[in-house]
Design goal:
By secondary structure, the protein is of the alpha/beta class. It folds into two domains: 178 residues, P-loop containing nucleotide triphosphate hydrolases (Rossmann fold, 3-Layer(aba) Sandwich), CATH 3.40.50; 70 residues, no CATH class. Helix content is 29%, strand content 24%. It is globular. The structure holds adenosine-5'-triphosphate and magnesium ion (MG).
Length: 278
């Protein structure tokens, strides 16, 4: 079913209700998001696609609780989001590793608010190192890692506090096609094992179809839902299948149909780190 009025779920883990967001810019106001409505089931995988500047990262920042100035409501388990919380993890658009911290120290940052003992912290970080396949690199520094490895560290940091909801903002944007596919497979495996709910922002329509149960297509200025496309294909999905191809065409048409699509900027890895939002 493809519809803006998806039937309500019994117990949504996340509800966006009439969410709107304005930014103050140059003495004026920029309307970044308008009337964003979405219920997400526990365990569901949502992909958000849309042209650059249509509000994808802003939506994730609102759900993770880094920005609490918005209109409407965002509920997690029926409770309004009032700030960050360990049931929500995020992998940022740029991986934002601290260059002066080792792999394990970067991952441990995700546990900063957990009040664990040193031993528990170490055990948890070690589990995540194994999960994302970085054994042997615990003491390496970001400059000693490949792009794919750095992304794994960022994913491990997003997962280390065992969130029930994981948000990923263009997590594989800087990777070559092959590494990207490997990471997509791994994300599927992690989701299956941990049963977590995921919200993935991507500009790659194939990635969205490969991973998501539903793809939310946003349109820009202001960012709002254009369409929600259900992806009813069984896993593992075959990119070469007819159904996959059809969905790809359909989504590309939604994205570029009105000629307004602007691709997100090319990511440059290892940008200087000015700040981290944890
Ligand atoms: N802190 C801010 N102050 C002012 N304007 C902002 C701020 N953050 C985002 N915006 C504006 O809000 C809009 C949405 O930005 P956002 O970063 O959410 O887009 P996006 O969909 O993630 O784009 P991209 O695909 O390029 O990452 C843009 O017009 C942007 O300029
Ligand atoms: Mg963004």
């Amino acid at each position: 079913m493809n519809s803006l009025t998806h039937p309500p779920f019994d117990t949504p883990i996340v509800s966006f209700r009439q969410v709107g967001k304005h930014f103050a810019v140059d003495g004026g106001e920029l309307e970044a998001i308008r009337d964003f409505d979405l219920d997400i089931r526990e365990g569901e995988s949502i992909a958000i696609v849309g042209s650059s500047g249509c509000g994808k990262s802003t939506l994730l920042r609102l759900l993770v609780g880094l920005d609490t100035e918005f209109s409407g409501e965002i509920l997690v388990d029926g409770q309004p989001v009032t700030g960050i919380g360990s049931e929500r993890g995020i992998v940022f658009q740029e991986h934002r590793l601290f260059p002066w911290l080792s792999v394990e120290q970067n991952i441990a940052l995700g546990l900063a608010n957990e009040g664990l003992t040193q031993a528990e912290r170490f055990r948890r970080v070690e589990q995540l190192v194994q999960l994302v396949g970085l054994d042997g690199f615990q003491r390496a520094y970001p400059h000693q890692l490949s792009g794919g490895m750095a992304q794994r560290v960022a994913i491990a940091r997003g997962l280390v506090a065992s969130p029930r909801i994981l948000m990923l903002d263009e997590p594989f944007g800087a990777l070559d096609a092959l590494t990207r596919q490997q990471m997509q497979d791994e994300l599927l495996a992690i989701r299956e094992r941990a049963g977590i709910t995921t919200l993935l922002v991507t500009h790659d329509v194939e990635e969205a179809i490969f991973l998501a149960d539903r793809v939310v297509v946003l349109e820009p200025r202001p960012g709002r839902i254009k369409r929600i496309v259900d992806i009813d294909l069984p896993h593992p999905r075959t990119r070469a299948s007819f159904e996959f191809h059809q969905l790809r065409e359909e989504l590309l048409h939604e994205l570029t149909g009105n000629g307004e699509y602007r691709a997100p900027p090319v990511r440059v890895e290892d940008l200087p780190l000015a700040f981290i939002a944890y």
